[in-house]
Amino acid sequence: MTGREGGKKKPLKAPKKDSKELDDDDMAFKQKQKEQQKLLEAAKQNAAKKGPLVGGGIKKSGKK
């Protein structure tokens, strides 16, 4: 047995994809996604500043 026969075979390389031309609709969609991502990040920052939304869960009355 030679060293090249055993083990996992390397997969063939896939051909590179051609970069497709982006039209105005694609550009607008990507811009909209970027803006939504920025808004989401801003909302995460604001949420991190505040405390938890729920207070204490189940409250006990103190009676036995």
UniProtKB/TrEMBL annotation:
Pfam families linked to this entry: TMA7
Skewed-composition ranges (Basic and acidic residues): 27-38
Annotated Gly residues bias: 53-64
Segments of this protein annotated with the region Disordered: 1-64
Gene: LOC115627207
The protein's name in its UniProt record: Translation machinery-associated protein 7 homolog
